[in-house]
Amino acid sequence: MFLAGFEIDLKILYRNKYKSLLIGGSSFLVPFSLILSFCFWMGWPYRTAGVLGVALSTTSLAIVFPILREKGLLRTSAGQLLLSSAMVVDIASMLMLLFLFYQPSLANSVLLGALLAGFFPVKKFVFRLFERYQGNRGEFELKLLFLVILTFSLLAEEAGIHEAVICFVLGVLFSEIDPSHEALMEKLNSVVFSLLAPLFFFHVGSMIRFSEIDGRVIGLFFLFLFLSLGGKFLGTYAPLRLFSAPVARFGAVLFNYRLSFGLVAAIFGLRRGIIDSSLFNVILLCVLFSSLAAVVIEKKFLGTPALSFPLPEKAGEGLAGIAAAPADAVVSDPEKP
Q1: What is the topology classification, in CATH, of domain 2-302?
Q2: Residues 86, 255: contact at Cβ < 8 Å?
Q3: Element (DSSP H or E) covering residue 124
Q4: Which tens digits make up the pLDDT trace of 172-217?
């Protein structure tokens, strides 16, 4: 979750704030509302409905970003709009998790206030240490970053907040790290994707109970898959067509990639007794097959949207370069000069 937050570029998000709020908000709320309505119609508790709604309404920014980069769309205003809208979906998912499941008490509120108050001083202190020990052979920067993440995660659990929410916020704060520390983030990515991510997905896979996949689970799977895919497509396509018609269909399919947020919400619900193992299986199957469906449609039928996008001459690489590029250096629609 820290890396998911770290991928949020606040400059790009601010540049497209109004459009992104409309597209990202619609992309999250339409499938969330459809799933919530069905769960209420079934008479399920609101917290069960909330877990299902959040888990099946997310978009994986960790998948959206590399696909946009691979297709060369990050240098277009349409690509930046897609990226910032996916950021809004991630933020909405985290806020909804916090809103639905936080149980306030005096002790929790005090600890939460201390956590929030400590974010910026810790960020300033850590950034100073990063500057001082940059390139240290003992990997001091990486160890310090893990220490900060672990400490805030433990405090978040004591405050009654899911640690994923706090890690996500930390990632957003640390996304403003100096580009000279790019090597540090590459090392963090290596540790996460070579060790921690495989362990996480292995753990999730081990929680599936195939013996419990019966007719009811299969029926709910197809129903929720239809609601999540259709709701996400409509909720993304309709507002995106208003601002960038050439990428509307592409973006609507792209936003159907789901991964870590959906799994985190499912595990959270199962551990708290909010959902049972059968609904946990339904969520995992929907997350898996919605992403597979998005892969097939995107690869076989859509390809890369036809956009023209002159590259800025002096902009840097990656998100930092995109943020540095002038607004008129990219073209969102081939028909427009």
Answers
A1: Na+/H+ antiporter like fold (1.20.1530)
A2: yes
A3: helix 106-132
A4: 777 766 555 566 667 777 777 777 777 777 777 777 777 778 888 8
